[in-house]
Each structure stands twice: as structure tokens, then as C-alpha cells.
């Protein structure tokens, strides 16, 4: 199915052709017709499936169909994303799509001066892409108004819950006086996610292109059992022996990232860092060096687990297993994108065996184990037998998304959010 068959304007079709888009992906085939008809959308789609175009193109076409003059600091469409990297990527894609139209797009996120963003927003913008925290700062400064909002998108909504953005969403929704068409896209679903969707969406059409919480079938998975203290040695050995040219390595802590950078440097392997202590400009430079092949390895914390779009990335390594089993899906989603083959490697210490079991339960299959010669771990047979036989271990659950929400009064917060949404809907009908 081609994009020209979707009755998009010639300007959009021309831009998509220049982007190299030919046929619709499965999520686009299902979501675009429904969104064009004005339905709210609840979509389960893995990274790399073309979901940005799935929500952006219907919005762009509807904005073109109902042209309006922009008012000062107003926006007609809002896309919320959990990280700076993802917000920047979405805005760049939309900019490519609207190249031949008169529409405007802007991205606002932390790490950039507020004043420069205010200038972009001063005359109004058709589509605004924002992280929740920075958007609230602009709302407080009255440099953004959501009074005339027509479209609202939550991209990587599950990650927003993981990062504790539920209160930010509540604050943002309190500034919306209309009932916008709302679309929620997520790679994984949890009880909290389903609850948020029920509160935010109005009779949504559900779109699912893959089984929930699964990984792309273009990714080959492998686990290397190894003692924690020997992980850095084994990483250098695998990179050198297997001649890996481009490797994205995930760690859980900034301190681990800094340590690993020094260790790789000692082994003659050029690496760069991407974590929360780095300024946005430094993170962007690191990503550019990695993409251009100037650095062989990029070491990242989960701040980069979503939003990074690295074409043809061959290898993702979990140096540390993630705290949440769902984050395994997001991390390795950086490879095996757009039908290309990818390689997901996980280093698992004795203490991380339970996390591995939870990941395997989540994705629905056992990951192949390989013991690297010279790095065989200390005996863990007793632990494995206990995990797979004792009910207390077998039935143990991983942490759920947004664990901090419970301590912040999630029931009261959800009730307030429902009231906000209900009031918007009532007001829109009057």
C-alpha cells in the first residue's frame, strides 16, 4: 500500500518520496485511516515500525485541510515525548514531512535556553513536540498556550510512566480547554498504562501490529553468563575478537558509564558517553561521532533507551541488565530496525539471573546462552535450579512501571486526572 493511495496532499507525498518512503508499514496501514477519521487511537507498536509517520501524517493533513492563522504562543497539535533525544527526532521527522507546506513545527526540551525556544513560539506554531518538564516550564512562563489544542499525542507513553511523569501529564491537561483528538503510542502495556489510556482516550480504536511486549524478530539474542567484575574485560574482548564496528552499550548507572569509558580507552577502543550528567549539546556531539564512525562504542544509560535513531545499528549490549524487564525491549529496539538484522547481547552476572528470567517470561522465549572461553562464571547451577523449581522464585514479579506512583497517592492522582479529562469532554460538548 503506497502513501499516494491515502489521499495525502501532493506536498506531503512529494516530501515522503524524498524521505525514501514507499510503502506503508503495518502500523501505518492500520492507524492512518482511523486517525484521518478523527478517532482516538491506542496503539501498541515496537520501535522502528514507523509510528512517527503513523500519528504525524494524519495530523499534518488535517491541519492543512483546516488552515488557521497561528496566534501568539498558541499551538494546534502537541506531541509529548519522554526524552530530549526522542523529541528532537520526532520534530526532525515532522519537519521533513511538512517541507513543502506552510505549516510550522518546534521542539522544546531541557538542556537548551528557554529564551531561544520562546522566540520560536512567539508567533505560534502548528505542531509542538515537547518533553513534559520543559513544556510545564513554558506553560508557567505563559510562552505556550494549549487553549486551542486540536491534536494530542503521547509517544512512548509507557516510558513516561516509568519516569514518573503522571503528575506532569495532569498539570499539562489542566491547561487544555478543548477536547483534542488524542493518540497514545506505546511499545509495552502494563496495568498502569491501560489505566492511563482509559482516562485519557475517548472510545479509542486499538491498533496492534505485534504481540505485546515482544521484541522484533529481526534481532538475534544471546546471553553471556559472566561474573560482574569481569564484564569490562569481556566487552573489550568481544569487540576486538568479533571486530564489532558500532556498538551501543547500556549500563544502569552514570558511574558505571564513566568507569567503562576509561577501561575501553585503555584497551584502545574509542568510546563516547550519553547520560543525564551530560549537557544536551555534549550528548548530541557524542551521538554524531558515533553515527559517523568516529567512535566505535557509545555507552548510555536508559535516558537514551528510546528516541535514538541510528540507521543500521548492528549491536546493542546490555552491560547491566535493566531494572525493569520491559526496558530490555526498549534497549534492544535500537537494533534490528526497519527490517534490518540486529544483534542483542546481554552480560548476566549471578545476581542478574532473576532479571533474565523475568525478561524471558516477558518476551516469551528463552535466550540462547553462550559461555565465552576464559570467562566462565563461578558455578551458579544451584541458583538456577532454585529459580526454576521454587515457587517463590518462579512466581516472583518484576517491578512494575512507574513504581514511585504508588507512594505519591496514585489513586487520588488518577481520580484528579479523570476529572480533568471529564471536564474537558463536557466543556467541548457545550
Automatic annotation (TrEMBL):
<dbReference type="GO" id="GO:0003724">
    <property type="term" value="F:RNA helicase activity"/>
</dbReference>
<protein>
    <submittedName>
        <fullName>RNA helicase</fullName>
    </submittedName>
</protein>
<feature type="region of interest" description="Disordered">
    <location>
        <begin position="388"/>
        <end position="430"/>
    </location>
</feature>
<dbReference type="Pfam" id="PF00271">
    <property type="entry name" value="Helicase_C"/>
</dbReference>
<dbReference type="InterPro" id="IPR050079">
    <property type="entry name" value="DEAD_box_RNA_helicase"/>
</dbReference>
<dbReference type="InterPro" id="IPR000629">
    <property type="entry name" value="RNA-helicase_DEAD-box_CS"/>
</dbReference>
<comment type="similarity">
    <text>Belongs to the DEAD box helicase family.</text>
</comment>
<dbReference type="InterPro" id="IPR027417">
    <property type="entry name" value="P-loop_NTPase"/>
</dbReference>
<dbReference type="Pfam" id="PF00270">
    <property type="entry name" value="DEAD"/>
</dbReference>
<feature type="domain" description="DEAD-box RNA helicase Q">
    <location>
        <begin position="1"/>
        <end position="29"/>
    </location>
</feature>
<feature type="domain" description="Helicase ATP-binding">
    <location>
        <begin position="32"/>
        <end position="207"/>
    </location>
</feature>
<dbReference type="GO" id="GO:0005524">
    <property type="term" value="F:ATP binding"/>
</dbReference>
<feature type="short sequence motif" description="Q motif">
    <location>
        <begin position="1"/>
        <end position="29"/>
    </location>
</feature>
<feature type="compositionally biased region" description="Basic residues">
    <location>
        <begin position="388"/>
        <end position="399"/>
    </location>
</feature>
<keyword id="KW-0347">Helicase</keyword>
<dbReference type="GO" id="GO:0016787">
    <property type="term" value="F:hydrolase activity"/>
</dbReference>
<dbReference type="InterPro" id="IPR014014">
    <property type="entry name" value="RNA_helicase_DEAD_Q_motif"/>
</dbReference>
<dbReference type="InterPro" id="IPR014001">
    <property type="entry name" value="Helicase_ATP-bd"/>
</dbReference>
<feature type="compositionally biased region" description="Polar residues">
    <location>
        <begin position="400"/>
        <end position="411"/>
    </location>
</feature>
<dbReference type="GO" id="GO:0005829">
    <property type="term" value="C:cytosol"/>
</dbReference>
<dbReference type="InterPro" id="IPR001650">
    <property type="entry name" value="Helicase_C-like"/>
</dbReference>
<keyword id="KW-0378">Hydrolase</keyword>
<keyword id="KW-0547">Nucleotide-binding</keyword>
<dbReference type="InterPro" id="IPR011545">
    <property type="entry name" value="DEAD/DEAH_box_helicase_dom"/>
</dbReference>
<feature type="domain" description="Helicase C-terminal">
    <location>
        <begin position="234"/>
        <end position="378"/>
    </location>
</feature>
<keyword id="KW-0067">ATP-binding</keyword>
<dbReference type="GO" id="GO:0003676">
    <property type="term" value="F:nucleic acid binding"/>
</dbReference>
<dbReference type="InterPro" id="IPR044742">
    <property type="entry name" value="DEAD/DEAH_RhlB"/>
</dbReference>
